[in-house]
């Protein structure tokens, strides 16, 4: 696994022993913050963390095996400065692209797990992210194991134009297959998940979990303000806003992600043994 | 009054002179000369359009809209309304219709389109062709109806995009689009999606997950508007023409990329010059594509559609 904390940027958690919380301004001791999974001890603000951190946070120790690690984007439009932007993102994050996936275990339940990384070009979805998400879904389908995806993204990647747009339909189409096989798909939406990703696989989970205060939505606040000509209310497009309007199932603090997912999987997936015992009992009673 | 775009001004000038001379006796020869000059000029101008000029044509205020095409292409159109949850979105129209193939043969279809308005009042009524979630949900309801009664689906897409507004967010714009993408992928009847004007990002795609994706000759289809792209790239929406170039959003680009299956020709100068001819071209294309799909089983249709979208993307392994 990669060590990401070595290459911070203004988007990620900055270097240094002490950090200022973006939520409340409190100065926090790095070690304690890290122990608290980069959630502010004072106000509960969730600092943005890398895809790898989510692997560590949610999956059983050492259980993750990454697939298709070395997929890189073509530059189908020959878009100005795109090549440079990609190289810069690769250097900055240590990832080849904005999404990693593979197989792993949660409380010993086999799953396919994927996570996006916002530090890689704003977690934008181009051909590689779309392809890898589609492959993650297909793998869950063929292996018949649950799929967990942690999403964070500004949306489709402009630099790949129409190819990026098509990834919305591609991932959604794969999810149609997965749904038909009755395999559970759990999405964790984190700060921020917007536009093209929210309008495809991030909104299609059987169960959608959001991190507190995460910014979630379709259109960006500035675009909406520009259209309607007024300021948006406080709390618009937050996880809590979506919860209130019925578009996420749960708002769960980072610390509770693993136990919550584990509990859900235990009920919807890991039930077989206990369930069949119950049925036998029931049959027996009826025959009596 | 005809509306001319900037690059059409040489044509406008000549047409004005023709108009002036036609009312005066004795200038027939001159008028005929001018007319053939106009045709030549048109051919030259319209076969050398820049991407930005195509954007302007795709957004031309006189361009035919979904209901114009539906009226010209179909008979017995029964418009259906509402998403059965919240409202009837006027930016999306749809219903049952027949498309006549010959004197004795017709195809029954469900036809759905995004609808723009022409005058200010109608523009507002149609919300400039930008659907709310209920528009996408209405469309999906009609597609499920099509599936139930085994009717093919035809969509006519011409939208700047899904509406960015407070109510749209509250009612789940993202969810509505995402669900359409997934449900369209597995619909067990043929879907023909036609981009007739503007294909504005996710808001267009949510009606365009088809077995066939077709575009009109001067239609555009893009992940972001040229203005939006220019604002992000150069912090200057005025640079939209450059962005239009970079985004590769024309029908010709998308055909080359293998994203779309066919370019439907337009009358010289664009669909707005001849609604009937434009509609005829669309109708021919619908009939041709539906006849190619008619022998596929529901399962084959779904597989073809999923595999089609599965194949989109350029990447490699290092």
Overview of the molecule:
The complex is a heterodimer of chains A (288) and B (318). In chain A, α4 (127-143) runs parallel beside α5 (161-180). Chain A has 10 helices and 11 strands. Chain A has helices spanning 30-35, 51-58, 82-93, 127-143, 161-180, 195-198, 221-228, 239-244, 257-268, 272-287; strands spanning 18-20, 27-29, 65-67, 71-73, 99-106, 109-116, 147-153, 185-194, 207-210, 216-217, 250-251. Chain A is of the alpha/beta class and 288 residues long. Chain A is globular. Chain A folds into 2 domains: 15-47, no CATH class; 49-287, Alpha-Beta Complex (2-enoyl-CoA Hydratase, Chain A, domain 1), CATH 3.90.226.10. Chain A starts with 17 loop residues before the first strand and ends with a helix. The model of chain B has no long low-confidence stretch (mean pLDDT 95). The longest helix of chain B is centred in the first third of the chain and has 19 residues, at 28-46. In chain B, strands 1, 2, 3, 4, 5, 6, 7 and 8 form an 8-stranded mixed sheet that branches. Chain B starts with 8 loop residues before the first helix and ends with a strand. Chain B folds into 2 domains: 6-48; 53-310, 2-enoyl-CoA Hydratase, Chain A, domain 1. Chain B is 47% helix and 17% strand. Chain B is α/β, with parallel strands linked by helices. At the A-B interface, β4, α4, α5, α6 and α7 of A face α7, α8, α9, α10 and α12 of B. β4 of chain A pairs antiparallel with β9 of chain B.
């Amino acid at each position: 696994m990669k060590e990401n904390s070595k290459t911070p940027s203004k988007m990620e958690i900055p270097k240094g022993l002490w950090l200022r919380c973006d939520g409340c301004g409190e100065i926090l001791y790095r070690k304690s913050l890290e122990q608290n999974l980069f959630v502010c001890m004072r106000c509960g603000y969730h600092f943005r963390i890398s895809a790898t951190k989510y692997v560590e946070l949610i999956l059983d120790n050492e259980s993750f095996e990454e697939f298709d690690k070395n997929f890189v984007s073509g530059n189908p439009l020959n878009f100005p400065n795109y090549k440079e932007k990609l190289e810069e993102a690769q250097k900055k994050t240590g990832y080849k692209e904005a999404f990693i996936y593979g197989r792993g275990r949660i409380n010993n339940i086999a799953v396919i797990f994927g996570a996006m990384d916002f530090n890689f070009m704003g977690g934008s979805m181009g051909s590689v992210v779309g392809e890898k998400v589609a492959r993650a879904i297909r793998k869950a389908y063929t292996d018949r194991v649950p799929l967990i995806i942690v999403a964070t993204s500004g949306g489709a990647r402009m630099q790949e134009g129409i190819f990026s747009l098509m990834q919305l339909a591609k991932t959604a189409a794969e999810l149609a297959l997965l749904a038909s096989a009755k395999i559970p798909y759990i999405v964790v939406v984190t700060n921020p998940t917007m536009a093209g990703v929210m309008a495809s696989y991030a909104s299609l989970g059987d169960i959608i979990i959001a991190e507190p205060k995460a910014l979630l939505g379709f259109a960006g606040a500035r675009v909406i303000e520009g259209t309607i000509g007024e300021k948006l209310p406080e709390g618009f497009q937050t996880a809590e806003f979506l919860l209130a309007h019925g578009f996420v199932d749960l708002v769960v603090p980072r610390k509770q992600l693993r136990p919550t997912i584990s509990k859900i999987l235990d009920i919807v997936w890991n039930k077989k043994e206990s369930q069949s015992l119950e049925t036998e009992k029931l049959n027996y009673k009826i025959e009596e | 009054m005809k509306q001319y775009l900037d690059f059409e001004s040489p044509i406008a000038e000549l047409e004005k002179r023709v108009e002036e001379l036609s009312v005066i006796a004795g200038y027939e020869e001159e008028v005929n000369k001018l007319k053939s000059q106009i045709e030549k000029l048109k051919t030259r101008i319209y076969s050398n359009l820049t991407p930005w000029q195509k954007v302007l044509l795709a957004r031309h205020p006189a361009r035919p809209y979904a209901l114009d095409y539906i009226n010209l292409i179909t008979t017995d159109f029964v418009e259906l309304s509402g998403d059965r949850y919240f409202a009837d979105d006027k930016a999306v129209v749809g219903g049952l219709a027949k498309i006549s193939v010959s004197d004795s043969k017709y195809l029954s279809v469900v036809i759905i389109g995004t609808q723009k308005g022409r005058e200010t009042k109608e523009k507002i009524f149609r919300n400039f062709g930008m659907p709310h979630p209920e528009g996408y949900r209405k469309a999906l309801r009609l597609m499920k109806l099509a599936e139930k009664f085994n009717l093919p689906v035809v969509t006519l897409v011409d939208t700047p995009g899904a509406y960015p507004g407070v109510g749209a967010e509250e009612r789940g714009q993202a969810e509505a689009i995402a669900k359409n993408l997934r449900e369209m992928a597995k619909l067990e009847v043929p879907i023909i999606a036609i981009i007739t004007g503007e294909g504005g990002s996710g808001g267009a795609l949510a009606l365009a997950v088809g077995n066939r994706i077709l575009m009109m000759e001067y239609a555009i289809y893009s992940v972001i508007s040229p203005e939006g792209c220019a604002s992000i790239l150069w912090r200057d929406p005025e640079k939209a023409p450059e962005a239009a170039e970079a985004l590769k959003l024309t029908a010709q680009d998308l055909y080359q990329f293998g994203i779309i299956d066919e370019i439907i020709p337009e009358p010289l100068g664009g669909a707005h010059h001849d609604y009937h001819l434009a509609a005829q071209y669309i109708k021919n294309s619908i009939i041709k594509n539906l006849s190619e799909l008619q022998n596929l089983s529901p399962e084959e249709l779904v597989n073809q559609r999923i595999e089609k979208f599965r194949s989109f993307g350029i990447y490699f392994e290092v």
